[in-house]
Amino acid sequence: MTEEAREIAEVPAVEVVSTVAVHLMTAAAVKCGLGEDPEEADLDEARTLIESLAGLLMAATPFIGTFHGKPLRDGLRSLQLAFREASIVPDEPGKGPGEKFTGPVVPPAN
User: What contacts 7, CB < 8 A, 6 or more positions away?
Assistant: First the structure.
């Protein structure tokens, strides 16, 4: 067994899932144009990342608990709203990235 394998074997699964989720969130935020350079926006890429994040979080929810899960789900919702706001032609409610897992995400009423 390699040193890396031994090290990862000691990391709790919830930490691995949380770390992967944060990486997906960060990449999705940049692709939504929320990074330092808005020119890096690419909504096709953002859609893939948000969809993947939503699938991961919905599958992991029973195992990661509320302490880890709620902030990650809140971040997902924020990304879904940012994607909707950045889209020139917004998806219909329920058709946006990740919404097949989370249900429709609509901006709050002003």
Answer: none
